[in-house]
Specification:
Two copies of one chain form a homodimer. Chain A is an alpha+beta fold. Chain A folds into two domains: about 375 residues, Thiolase/Chalcone synthase (Peroxisomal Thiolase, Chain A, domain 1, 3-Layer(aba) Sandwich), CATH 3.40.47; about 35 residues, no CATH class. In chain A, strands 1, 4, 5, 6, 7, 8, 9, 15, 16 and 17 form a ten-stranded mixed β-sheet that branches. The first copy, chain A, has a three-stranded mixed β-sheet with strand order 3-2-18. Chain A has a two-stranded antiparallel sheet with strand order 10-14. In chain A, α9 runs antiparallel to α12. About 5% of the residues of chain A have low confidence. At the A-B interface, α4, β5, α5, β9 and β10 of A face α4, β5, α5, β9 and β10 of B.
Chain lengths: ~425, ~425
């Protein structure tokens, strides 16, 4: 029995901030962002909205487009790193909004519901749990949700990669869009490339951080007991970009190697399209170059690369130069254009959606194929998922005959075009109010 | 192929605070806590320790007791509501401590790792995900971890139910301890009986909460960008005890009904022992009375109850009185003693361990049977799991021939006896320093 993605819905926030205007604000060369990283716009959400609103929108769209499915849904799992509670699942807040919007209180009473957390990969973790559930319960369906807001400090190196998105993915037997295969390569290592630690502050120290003079005699509701410390949680991550890129590459190489050992075949042969987690649009092509070189070396195509840019030197420094040349070769550009273009285009227009990002990449691949009238039925997409902290997962899914019928893929470019830009003043006001 | 619990390890914190001393401190009648709720001691953890330390201890014990298993472990999932990070899984911090302690850096490189969140039920969610994984990958094993600290404000109604614990559960094919069955009853409803919401504070308002006067001219590292707001996360929950009890009962009744529909048999016949999630030791027997009455009504045993306490009146008020009498009947006391006694005894000695609590209940049942030389092989334990927010799950596992070989069960009472008490002054110092 085959299990996979039967339907997918995305919430695309109706506002965006042009990256070119952020470049002006921060006095960054716009070409560095547009041509270097592939950024053009970032999805922005009004400060009152959080991940529960985005998730609810994606779920409402999925359930309205598939109105008869709910009685068969036995599991709804969500990946996010924009949680709103330390105990009660963020998904449960979203589901309450969905019940109200659909006018169906209690409609999830028979569903298993949970939040999963592992930075940007938890949405994929949720989806794979849903696939396991349907493999074991083929009469039932499951829904994976990914919802996040990527918010960074003003002026930080992350600011131009901001974004927001949510997706809901319906998993079923005999799926209409994509069949998931069983091979799964994993790479895990505990590193601190990106995190959002709870910070413990002494009461006096926090007052100092606030620029305030502590008056220990005063007590209020929040300090109902004689607390001396408080935990403060920043929604903006602590991160090291270049180190995180290196971790991403290492985890993916480990996952790819394990994946190939299971399949007995190179991923190069197996992935017609590639859906990376894209913190910025060109992350896949930039990091992919070294993975591609490793995979290309034992193949006949290696001779084509050598014919184009000359033989690989043995000397270390020259080698680095040569690899840079390889990443700009005609052969690699072709590889990127064939396998990643739609994913990049969608990411470029929305920015980073953390857990939702890899699903937006998938929708971009589908939307681009519809635009170019490229037939995907029977062709395969490789998922290259990453979560900081850190874990990589690699697996494959095969497009089915009805893949073109996905409303989310059909309308993606139109919906992105219909959004409204916000100006710099609004951007700053929203950012500071969050 | 049969899948279930092959091994289980628990971390029992070496310190406890006697509930009788808390009663003195708070001027509560000690009998209300000891005889009314079944509380005798609360496990306490030094303020420098968090859920990652507890989880690491349980994992180290499991891997040292099962030294050859690691290469076959493909999944480690953790449930907790004491997370230390908003993006990177709390489990990954624990695993880094385990790698160091075992002197095996990178030993989890091939493992799928994730955090799950749904209040106290997320440890069960993690375990059931591990069971699904092994059903689909029977050559592999998986480990579920549950780790929590239950901390409540001084003087609050939750203070006397505090506790801390962590467990690690090894799931495999042909397990030595317990075979998990496939039937699973679920009840879900989005309610706010207990949660730990992130609270958004205006900078000035937080300063006021701190009893401090804000000086807006001052800025420091934490306020690196012109933030006006900050999120504050209390480790102490916001909750409504009686409402949460009602939600617990409703979710369990829903889950039990769905479970019985799948089995075609009453749970009364199916559960020789009952492992409840126990926020306090007598939660199971108190809430269980109404579930038991519902289940007993259609059986021949109903006549025994009527013979003992008289017939059930039809008038509403008299009915409530009669139900109270039923919960104190010889028949129900016998039921509790046979099915819950060990679970209550373990909970009574440790307090609430949130996600770990139901597994401590299971260990208590096993330890009590060892003490009483009761043979459990071939007998069944019902899991009655609850997470606020809210979700109930009901399923069954059958003890295997080697169930007595569990070191954690064999040593439970001894290890509880070997702990050191702390005095009231230390209790207050530790609580306030956290």
């Amino acid at each position: 029995m085959q299990v996979g993605i039967d339907a997918i819905s995305a919430h695309i926030p109706p506002h965006y901030f042009p990256v070119r205007e952020l470049a002006v604000l921060r006095q960054i060369d716009p070409d560095k962002l547009e041509k270097g990283l592939g950024l053009s716009a970032m999805s922005l959400v009004e400060p009152e909205q959080d991940a529960t609103d985005l998730a609810a929108q994606a779920l409402i769209a999925l359930l309205q487009e598939n109105p008869t499915v709910l009685p068969r849904v036995g599991r709804i799992y969500m990946g996010s790193e924009s949680h709103v509670d330390g105990a009660k699942p963020t998904l449960s807040y979203a589901l309450s909004k969905v019940e109200t919007a659909l006018g169906q209180p209690g409609c999830f009473n028979a569903c298993d519901v949970v939040d999963m957390t592992f930075a940007c990969i938890a949405g994929v973790d949720a989806m794979l749990s849903c696939v396991e559930y349907v493999r074991l319960n083929p009469d039932h369906c499951a829904i994976a949700v990914a919802s996040d807001l990527a918010i960074y400090s003003e002026g930080s190196a992350g600011e131009y990669t901001q974004g927001a998105a949510a997706v809901a993915v319906l998993i079923s037997a005999n799926p209409r869009l994509l069949v998931m295969e069983k091979e799964l390569g994993i790479g895990y290592a505990g590193v601190e490339d990106f995190h959002k630690p709870l910070q413990r502050f002494q009461r006096a120290a926090l007052a100092q951080e606030l620029g305030a003079a502590l008056n220990p005699a005063s007590d209020s509701a929040f300090w109902s007991s004689p607390k001396t410390q408080v935990w403060v949680h920043s929604i903006e991550p602590v991160f090291d970009g270049p180190y995180s890129n290196a971790c991403y590459t290492e985890r993916l190489q480990e996952a790819l190697t394990r994946y190939e050992n299971q399949c007995g075949e190179s991923w190069l042969q197996r992935f017609d399209k590639m859906a990376f987690h894209l913190p910025y649009a060109f992350q896949g092509r930039r990091m992919g170059a070294s993975l591609w070189l490793n995979a290309l070396r034992p193949t006949a195509q290696w001779a084509d690369l050598v014919a184009e840019i000359g033989p690989e030197p043995s000397q270390e420094e020259a080698k680095t130069e040569w690899e840079k040349k390889a990443s700009k070769s005609q052969l690699y550009r072709q590889f990127v254009a064939q396998r990643m273009l739609g994913a990049e285009r969608a990411s470029s227009a929305m920015g980073n959606g953390y857990t939702a990002s890899i699903f937006i990449a998938l929708l971009g691949i589908m939307a681009q194929a519809i635009t170019e009238q490229e037939e995907l039925s029977g062709r395969a997409v490789g998922f290259l998922a990453y979560g900081s902290g850190s874990k990589g997962k690699v697996f494959r899914a095969v497009f089915q005959g009805d893949w073109k019928q996905s409303p989310a893929a059909q309308t993606l470019w139109t919906r992105l075009k219909e959004r409204s830009p916000i100006d710099t003043e609004t951007y700053l006001r929203w950012h500071r109010a969050r």
